[in-house]
Design a protein that fits this description.
By secondary structure, this protein is mainly alpha-helical. It folds into 2 domains: about 30 residues; about 40 residues. Helix content is about 80%, strand content about 0%. It is built from 3 helices and no strands. The radius of gyration is 17 Å and the shape is flat. The two termini are about 15 Å apart. The model has no long low-confidence stretch (mean pLDDT about 90).
Length: about 70
């Protein structure tokens, strides 16, 4: 049942991983500076997106239990 519910997410992650291996990202072809530079931009961006989504959920009094 878990594969049925989350199969599309698993497929997307596998395709993203295959693309990252193909361009050399996961094989270590880039410099350490490049990996850190990307992390310095993506981690704060993802935290900002999460905070925005939490604020919207709080503002609209959204509950996960209601959706299920």
């Amino acid at each position: 049942m878990l594969v049925i519910d989350y199969g599309w997410q698993l497929l997307a992650l596998m395709m993203a991983g295959a693309a990252l291996v193909r361009i050399g990202w996961l094989t270590g072809n880039f410099s350490l500076f490049h990996y850190r530079y990307v992390a310095y931009w993506t981690i704060p961006l993802t935290i900002f997106i999460q905070l925005c989504s939490i604020a919207i959920q709080y503002y609209y009094d959204w509950s996960y239990i209601v959706t299920g």
